Amino acid sequence: MFEIFGVPSQALFGQLLLGLINGSFYALLSLGLAVIFGMLNIINFTHGAQYMMGAFAAFLLLRHAGIGYWLALLIVPVIVGATGVVIERLFLKRIQKLDHLYGLILTFGLALIIEGLFRNYYGSSGQPYGVPESLQGGRNLGFMFLPNYRAWVIAFSLLVCLCTWFAIERTRLGSYLRAATENPALVRAFGINVPRMVTLTYGFGVGLAGLAGVMAAPIYNVSPQMGSDIIIVVFAVVVIGGMGSIMGAIVTGFTLGIVEGLTKVFFPEASNTVIFVIMIIVLLVRPAGLFGRSA
Amino acid sequence: MATLAAAAPVRRETQWSLAVAGAALVIFLVAAPFALYPVFIMKALCFALFACAFNLLIGYVGLVSFGHALYFGWAGYLAAHAAKVWGLPPELAVLAGTATGMALGLIAGMVAIRRQGIYFAMITLALAQMMYLVALRVKMTGGEDGIQGVPRGRLFGTFDLSNEMTMYAFVVVAVLAAFFLIYRIINSPFGEVLKAIRENEQRAVSLGYKTDDYKLVAFVLSATLAGLAGSLKALVFQLASLTDVHWTMSGEVVLMTLVGGLGTIFGPIVGAFLIVAMENYLALFGQWVLVIQGAVFVICVLAFRRGIVGELAARLRVRL
Fold this sequence. Notes:
heterodimer; A: mainly alpha; two-stranded antiparallel sheet; B: mainly alpha; 4 strands; globular
């Protein structure tokens, strides 16, 4: 046991770890928002609700079908992504040509509907979801205790983020996607089905939110308002990073999680407002965001 | 931006429609307390002013603030605090609250107008959330309890506001004055520039207007009026609480304005009365309120973008 800046190492690294965990979720969610924004030009306000749906889907699969964590990790993103596809086809498609404020309002309305429905059936209190057996326990690293599940969340979300980055920036499919973001009409002229790509992109982004929800279930309680709690912070993260770059969203998400964790150690009163304060500073100094292209 | 408020083609001589609607509103407000609960009308009026203040931004400048609860709620806190702890008379308490809305609007506006469009909405939402978290922590706001038992006091030392009808008269006069002010702002040369920014900001810039200054002034005006609404509400209910600073309140004002009609003069008023009434009736249904609100949002965006008053104005080919 030793001290750093007068803080016991256990507390410092413990909070850093928590920060990294939060950062994993910020990164996954802001990544999804950025991908969706790039293609559909809307801010998906429903993202928080879809993250919550992911957590609930995992919880319900376990309770009613006996399907455990690992299978849920595979199935849930597909389920949530499929609901996203339906939402895109039913609603978002119709407002494509309108001012983007309508997209924001529409997805906000959808978020209210989803959260309201879950509250009706499951109340406002949280439901517990256990850590999968294979990841229970933890190891002592000497300077801190590292629970296995938390280590897994950080590693896996980093992997998912990097795979997404690779898929978009380095593969042929990703190049279609980037091209369609720049100029959908031209890409269509080359015979690529852009509307289907838009739908699938939305489904993918939403699936990422669902995946984040499954990963979050054993850490936070599964509750209907877990989505609205996190989405506003993620918006601030997105403003700080700027939505122009995929890597930017990932780096900003993790970094801000760490900053938040450190604030909890040194200045606990400010820990849940620090991200907003950083947002203000970034806007004053570099309005386009850290990784954003200036407008 | 041109697709925003789909205004109807209007002939110049149709201004009479505004006078008629205004007169109808005044007559309604005079007659209403004999048929409806004064508290209900006062609540609806406070929200109507709040929605009109919000509409000034979304309908006439094309700026979507998703955090207007910040000015509404914090103004309520300050007004309640001024009346209860500092013992100020109601007119000064309301002034203190309104000034709070103005100050917060100035600070938030300076930060938020640095980005446009979708970012603007996210920034205003994030700023409001930050101040919600502050309200949750600070001693002054009373946390979860809020500030309760706020004395209404005597207006100008003479009118006893604990009398329901006196309070009603005060709220009606204050809100109508604010409506008139908004009307004058919209129809002033300043308002014309705002509309130009809404239609095409680049062109407004190229014509030599410093659009950022105009946007900031509009933002501060809107926050100030939202502050007035929040202060009045705190006095009416003798309560300032977390609900008024929460993001759901920011969403509710969007809903009211959208239902009534973006960019119409009377739309937000109609929307506010409708939503307040709806919530009164739906209170029995508990959590379904959230679902219904969400559904109204979705329906409005998909099929009813002009809102009630906007649709009416388009049918009659008049301004409302």
